[in-house]
Amino acid sequence: MKKGIILILSVGVLFSKGSLSFSQKPKLEGTISLSGAWAIYSTTVAWAEVFQKKHPGVKIEVSAGGAGKGVADLLAGFVDIGMVSREPNPSELKRGIFPVYILHDAVFPIVSDKNPFLKERVRSKFNVSEIWH
User: Fold this and answer.
1) Which of 13, 15, 103, 106 sits between 20 and 30 A of 6, alpha carbons compared?
2) CB-CB contact of 69 with 35 (8 Å)
3) Burial of 118 from C-beta contacts in 10 A (0-12 / 13-18 / 19+)
4) 3-state helix, strand, coil in the chain (%, to 5)
5) What b-and-e string marks burial along 24-49, b requiring 16 or more CB atoms within 10 Å of the CB?
6) Are 61 and 34 in contact (CB under 8 A)?
7) Alpha carbon of residue 58 to chain centroid
8) Residue 121, SS3?
9) CB–CB of 82/74 below 8 Å?
């Protein structure tokens, strides 16, 4: 998570106007655009909201559509950052993609305890009463 915030801050500085000095806080302005993986979308939106509250002069546009879209949009120059939920392949790296690892995602199935098929599906591997209690 820390790497992701550093990445957003770094890109924000690229879009800032004015000179930076140690005596004043930089005023960040501009637009940062991101596109790509659904797995990263909600985390990125949350980071963008927090960042924009602290830096209202920065507009962050986040769109999702899959890891392939993030890479394609980035390589085509449509976005500043491509969100990818997989390892970049060698051909993407040769084209200049620079990966910044921000998080690991996981998928957890969630099943209602009122689901009529729960006992049938879980019975073979788990004791259902142990799962819910």
Assistant:
1) 106
2) yes
3) middle
4) 40, 15, 45
5) eeeebebebbbbbbebbbeebeebbe
6) yes
7) 18
8) helix
9) yes
Q: Hunting for tokens 């390589």 — which residue is that? A: 75
Output the six-digit token pair for 22.
């140690």
Helix (H), strand (E) counts: the chain: 6, 3
pLDDT (tens digit per residue) in 33-63:
999 999 889 989 999 999 999 999 999 999 9
Average pLDDT over residues 73-99: 91
* Cα–Cα dist 105/51, whole Å: 22
